[in-house]
C-alpha cells in the first residue's frame, strides 16, 4: 500500500499550520516529531478526513481519498490525542460499541475485543467504568479501539501519554509487530518511543517538513554537531540561554552539558559518543541552525 501526501497545506486565517507537506508512506512505522504548534495534529486530522485541507492531494495507491469516501475510512485506525471516551461505559462495553461502529460481526468483535484488552493490559479491569480509570488506562482503552477491525493505516497521536515505562515498552513492542503489513504513523513527544522501532522519522517545524530519514541516518547527520562541557549547576542556565536547550548528564566527575550547534562553542569539546534521536530533535528544534535558516529563506523566496 502507498499513501501519498502531495503539497498539502492548511491555514487558519493568516496562520499557515501546514505548508506544502509532501511525503510517501509505505508499510512500516513513521515517527512524527515536532514541538507544539508544528502541525502534527493538523496533519493527522487531515489524513483521517476530520478536517479539509486547503490544497494538495492525498491518495491511496493512486486514488484520491476524498473519492474513496467510506472505503478509505475503513482502512483507518485513529487514536486522537484528546480522550473522547464515554465515562459511564466499561472498557469492554466501549470496545464492543466501537466494533459495532466499524461493522464487525458479533463473533469477530468478541475475539478482537478480548485479545486487545489482553494486549493493552486491561483484561482484569475491563468490567469497570472508564470514569474510574487513570489517564494511562484511558489511553490504553483508546489504543485498543483504534486497533479494532484490523486497519491497514494506523494513526496514533501521543499513544503512550500517561503510561508508565513498563506499559510504554509493552505498547511500543506491540505497535512494532503491527507494522509488518501496515502503515503506522505515530506523533509523539516521547522520542524513545520511536527511536528503536521507526522505519523513518519526520521532523516538523512551523508547519514544514524539514527532515525525513531513518533514525540512524538522522543521528549520523548531527553526530559532529554535539558539544559537551563539564560545568557547575549555576552555569547550566547561562549556557542554555546562550546556545539553546541541551541535555544534562550526571557523570563521575560531575555535571556535563551537551549542546547541539554547527560550530564548537567556546570552552566546549566534541561529544564522546551516545548521540541519539533526542539530540537530533534538539539540533533542529531548539537552535536556529544553518540548514533550517536556509530552508526557511528558500521557502519565503518561492512563496
Key features of this structure:
single chain, 303 residues, alpha/beta, 6-stranded mixed sheet, 4-stranded antiparallel sheet, 12 helices, 14 strands, 38% helix, globular
Please provide a written account of the structure:
Helix content is 38%, strand content 27%. The protein has a 6-stranded mixed beta sheet, sandwiched between helices. The protein has helices spanning 40-47, 65-68, 70-73, 91-101, 106-119, 135-147, 165-178, 192-195, 215-222, 233-243, 277-286, 290-302, and strands at 3-12, 15-25, 28-33, 55-60, 63-64, 76-79, 153-157, 183-187, 200-205, 208-213, 226-231, 247-251, 254-260, 269-270. The radius of gyration is 21 Å and the shape is globular. The model has no long low-confidence stretch (mean pLDDT 88). The protein is an alpha/beta fold and 303 residues long. A hairpin with a 2-residue loop joins strand 1 (3-12) and strand 2 (15-25).
- Overall radius of gyration: 21 Å
What's the pLDDT, averaged over the residues?
88
General shape: globular
SSE succession: EEEHEEHHEHHHEHEHEEHEHEEEHH
Q: How is the main sheet built?
A: 6 strands, mixed
Give the percentage of residues in beta strands: 25-35%
Amino acid at each position: 500500500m502507498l499513501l501519498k501526501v502531495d503539497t498539502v497545506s492548511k491555514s487558519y486565517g493568516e496562520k499557515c499550520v501546514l505548508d506544502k507537506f509532501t511525503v510517501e508512506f509505505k508499510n512500516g512505522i513513521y515517527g512524527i516529531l515536532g514541538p507544539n504548534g508544528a502541525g502534527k495534529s493538523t496533519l493527522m486530522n487531515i489524513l483521517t478526513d476530520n478536517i479539509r485541507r486547503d490544497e494538495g492531494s492525498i491518495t491511496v495507491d493512486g486514488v484520491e481519498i476524498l473519492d474513496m469516501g467510506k472505503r478509505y475510512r475503513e482502512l483507518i485506525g485513529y487514536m486522537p490525542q484528546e480522550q473522547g471516551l464515554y465515562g459511564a461505559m466499561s472498557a469492554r462495553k466501549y470496545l464492543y460499541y466501537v466494533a459495532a461502529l466499524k461493522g464487525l460481526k458479533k463473533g469477530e468483535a468478541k475475539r478482537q475485543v478480548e485479545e486487545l484488552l489482553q494486549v493493552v493490559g486491561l483484561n482484569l479491569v475491563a468490567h469497570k467504568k472508564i470514569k474510574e480509570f487513570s489517564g494511562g488506562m484511558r489511553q490504553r482503552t483508546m489504543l485498543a479501539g483504534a486497533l479494532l477491525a484490523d486497519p491497514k493505516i494506523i494513526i496514533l497521536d501521543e499513544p503512550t501519554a500517561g503510561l508508565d515505562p513498563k506499559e510504554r515498552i509493552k505498547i511500543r513492542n506491540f505497535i512494532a509487530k503491527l507494522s509488518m503489513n501496515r502503515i503506522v504513523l505515530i506523533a509523539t513527544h516521547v522520542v524513545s518511543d520511536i527511536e528503536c522501532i521507526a522505519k523513518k522519522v519526520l521532523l516538523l517545524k512551523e508547519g514544514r517538513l524539514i527532515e525525513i530519514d531513518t533514525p540512524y541516518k538522522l543521528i549520523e547527520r548531527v553526530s559532529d554537531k554535539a558539544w559537551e562541557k563539564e560545568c557547575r549547576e549555576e552555569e547550566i542556565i547561562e549556557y542554555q540561554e546562550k546556545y539553546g536547550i541541551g541535555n544534562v548528564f550526571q557523570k563521575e566527575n560531575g555535571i556535563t552539558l551537551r549542546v547541539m550547534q554547527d560550530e564548537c562553542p567556546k570552552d566546549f569539546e566534541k561529544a564522546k559518543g551516545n548521540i541519539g534521536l533526542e539530540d537530533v530533535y534538539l539540533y533542529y528544534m531548539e537552535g536556529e541552525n544553518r540548514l533550517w535558516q536556509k530552508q526557511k529563506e528558500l521557502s519565503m523566496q518561492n512563496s
